[in-house]
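Troubleshooting log. The previous run stalled partway through. Resubmitting the same two chains, unchanged.
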Amino acid sequence: MGQLLVLSGKGGTGKTTVASALIQLSKVKLFADCDVDAPNLDLVMHQTVDPIITDYSGLPKAFIHEEQCIECGQCQSQCRFDAISHDQVKKTYVVDLNACEGCGVCELVCPVGAVHLEPIVDGHLQLYKSERVFSTAQLKMGSGTSGMLVTKVKRQMLEQGVESEWAIIDGSPGIGCPVIASISGVDYVLIVAEPSLSGISDMERIVTTASRFGVKTFICVNKFDVNIEYTDKIEAYAKAKGLDFVGRIPYDSQAVKVINQGKTIVEIDCASGRAVQGIYENIKKVIDNGGNL
Amino acid sequence: MKIALLSGKGGTGKTFVSVNMAFVAEKAMYIDCDVEEPNGHLFLNPQIEAVEEVKVAMPKIDHEKCTGCRKCVEFCRFNALAYVNNAVKVFEDVCHSCGGCMLVCPENAIVEKDKTIGKIEKGRSGEVSVKTGILNMGEASGVPIVKQLIENVSIEEELSIIDAPPGSACIVMEAIKDVDYCVLVAEPTIFGTQNLSMVHELVKLFDIPYGVVLNKCLDDENPAEKYCEENEIHVIGKVMYSHDLALLSSQGEIVSRVDSSYYAKFKTMLERIFEEVHHGTTSRA
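Second attempt completed without errors. Output:
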């Protein structure tokens, strides 16, 4: 089985719009939304079954028992994350759970055993399972363990015993922890770039990040007609890097309308939908031909 | 005064609004906290005056002193240490620099060394001083860069405009700590609206005054605008989508510099924020 991950570097270039269209066109049986900080794929992938929801806990966090605390301040002085402060009223030290990374140093240094690490809920996983499997999740606000949750979302998708030639995964913006976790193990990355100075700068950073994993990378441009000169630059960049440039999608106000109806852009006849159809065929050609467009 | 711009969803126009506000403010500091993909400098084009490296501590094993007791390996919650081929090995990519291994080692065989994870560029663009945080590629977390970016930002004398990363994870919380006002930038899609509701929850949780800028608006119904109406959120500005605007922005142009109607628009937004902060007349939890 092959896994295709949709990424962009810059946010808002159209990852979910393109990923949902590819899921619709390819009729893949396995798909997932790994943008656990801001998931959106569920809004256009209507499911007839109710999701199975499970709690997600990252690393256990520190709790200080106030009746045991002797206010020595060791925990605060050793905490590297500024997560511990003194509560003068309650005469104890307290942990800011948003800042705590669960390292356990405070538990280690507490001379009276007043600190304990306890699991907390950092978010939840959702699984929609019928003849198709859709795995998604939502991280709780302020949580710092998105990479672990991304890995769980992918694992949940793969462990349902559903055979599929393909899996399509919607990724998250940026180049950090959740992106790195999402790239690990996939076969192909499709980068949705935007023809702007910002878009090009961000695309170069994600291409470099992805290349460290040796994953075959495709590039397409969304809203290409906003700046055709930069679109040409992106295509030239792809060629120079030996990446497959698989298509251009025009700016299309129809796309906004269709998305706002909760549909993918290939469910009506519109310019952006037709362009993604072309991109889908190009990607398939490359994969079927063992890597050549 | 410190103003932070956030959005939940990426690409709604945080940087667009931030750089225009900084430009019309006459005197301001612009701080780019979107360290994974910093873009504000592409618009402001600052003359770089100084570069600061951002470093974190990494454990370094003294193999002469190490007796192979593996207490450090057992302690590390992040699996950043392993005992392979009769030696402790450090996996720097997953190390959180907590210092626990050093504390737990009975032989004092672990010391710390610096590892550079990114940098902060400081510069000037006309009346705007610019700080840009840049995470090195391959690094997992930009939180230490954001911490370094916002420390020592003076509260009284200057206007600071903080361009936050997308999402609502820990790095965003770090960026909006101690700000006076949050501007939530929203686009007119159901995606944008879902993510607007997330950051709306976030600013309510932190009890920070806030308002919304509706960006990329079309003539059709705007679900983000509807959300603001339903939740009685103050809309401080509205920017329509136009091809000309998209083209100018794509070229890295600050539209307020070339078009006086945008200058006036962003000036008004900024004045509304000042008014709300000074009079406390804002939507708040």
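Takeaways: The two ends of chain A are 20 Å apart (CA to CA). The first helix of chain A runs from residue 15 to 26.
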